[in-house]
Each structure stands twice: as structure tokens, then as C-alpha cells.
Amino acid sequence: MDKEEKCKYRGVNKGGAERMIESSVSNKKTKRENLETTSKIPELEQKIRPSKLEEIIGRKTEKETLKMMIDSARKRNEVIDHILFYGPPGLGKTTFAMAIANEIGSSIKITSGPAVERQGDLAAIVTGLKANDVLFIDEIHRLSKVVEEILYPAMEDRVLDIIMGKGPSAKTIRLTLEPFTLIGATTQIGRISSPLRDRFGLIQRLDFFSQSDLVSILERASKLWEIEVEKEALKMLANCSRGTARVGLRLLRRTRDYADKEKSDVVTEEIVKRTMELLGVDLQGLEEIDRVILRTILNNFAGGPIGLSTLAASISEDEVTLADVHEPYLMKCGYIKRTSRGRVLTTKGLKYIESIDG
Length: 358
Description:
This protein is an alpha/beta fold. The chain contains 14 helices and eleven strands. Helix 7 crosses helix 8 (231-239) and helix 9 packs across helix 10.
């Protein structure tokens, strides 16, 4: 290869290398822009969740009780007692846990009952906690008995007893833990054993939100999401929210989508009505599955009584979902009631079915 050809070859290589570098820089820039864009989405969603107790809408009694506990513990320079929240899903149990951690100025570690399968899993979590940290366990009723038992001394005495080895050579090692606060959340408090339940310093029930509280929650969310919503539209959305903030926020997002489809800058009462019709949600918040439950009790079982397992099998639904998600709201509306013999359709429930079926 002569000198001229070598120069040409080097020039080609140099140009190719430059293009590769430019392409690499461009790819990195695109990835960085994508990461920045995607990071804004969770950040915007996180703003919806209140970070302090005073930002939580409603829940006056609960906030006063927690504020009293926090102020008292701070005055004594101690950690606050362990807390258990229970109630239907979507009512703010996780929000309260994160707000408490922010109020006391500590870190929070979040896990769930099904995720902690072995003693070692729990040991790894609690030994990593620093003084005054908060450990939040969602669905705490799903902790296994073995894991639950090593939690007892951790909650009471701040120690962790771990058994090393098996048989005659097995040894027990006791680890001292930093003072921490355990916050548990459950939808089924009856499934938590008495020894664990009694170790909580506060057991707080969270009930459904009132309509006025839901309107305030939706109004706050619409401002953060930059959605212009009419007052009457907010009231209609609150009525359809089943007394649950999570449901209300989900419906608000769907009405925003419908408004975008209709190229409307404002979410009106008519847009909310059309969106609810599309989703199969009536003005009382009942969905199609709720109406199927009521019709099944009336038409297949003459209004009841009917057992939970039989009802679940009749509508091809899981028993836990039926008992935890659908029944509480139907009972709150007064459409069904639980008796010792099973579920029974009420007079109010019968009138509702007659009104929609004619």
C-alpha cells in the first residue's frame, strides 16, 4: 500500500471514528433527555401524595392523634410508638406512613407482607434501620407466622433473635437494634394475630372520605395536574369516587383523557357524565361488577341469604376481592347486609335494581 492510499485509508477511518463518536454522543444525549422526561412523570405523581400531616385533607381526628404522639415523643426525645392503620384500600394508609416519617424527619423503608418470606429477609431490613427510622409494612396480615414471631422482640425490646445452624449445634444470636417505629397497614385486621396486634401503641381505623373531602382532594389534584375542572364536574366526580381518594384520582385522569379526545380545555359536567358512561360507572360510583352482584343475589338466590363462597363462584370472582373491594361499598350504600346465614339484598338495594332495570 503506497503513501497516498494509506492517507486515504486513515482519512476514512478518521471520518468513520468521528461519525461513531458523534453518534454515541447523540445517543447518550437522547437517552439523557428520555430519562429526564420519564423522571418528571413520577415526580409529578408524587406531588399528589401529601408529604406532611397538615397537607392531608380531612382526617381531623386522626391527624390530631398522630400530632399529639409525635409532639410528645419529640419532647421526651423518644421514638413514637408503633402504629397500625386498617381499613378498605385506597384511603391513605401509605400516605399517613410517609407523612409521619417526614414529620419526625427520618427515613422510611417500605416493604409488604408477601415480600418478607423468610426470617433472614426481615433481619436484613431491621438491622439496616438507623435510629428513629420508620419501617412501613403494607399488607402486614400476610406475614408468615415464622417471620411474625421474630418481629415481637424487635418491636418490644429492640432485639433480634436469630438461630444459626440446626440440631444440637444450633446457636441463638441476639442482635441489638436501633430504636425504630413500625407502621403496619392492613385491609383485614381480623387476620392479624392478637400478640402482634397488641404490640402496636396506636390502632387507627381509616373510613371512607366524605363528599366534601373528596371534592377538595380532586380540586388539589386538578391544580397540580393543571386540569381546569368546573365546580359541578368536581362534585359529580366526587359522587362517583366510592368514598375513596384513589378511585377519584383515577376517574379524574380518565376525564382528562376524554376531554383531550374531545379537544376541550375544560372538564365539564357533560364530559364527566360521558366518561362515566364509557367506564360503566353510575352517579353513585357503582361499577358493572357491583350491579352484577346485586342482580345475582336478587335473580339467582331470591334476595338471599347467600354465602360468600357461593356468591363468588356465581359471578366468577375471587372471594378476597369480593369481600375486600366490592362488599364494603355496597354495605356502605345500604344495598346489602351481612347476616349469620350470609349476604342479603336490602329494600334499598332492591329499589336500586328496579330503578336501573325498569
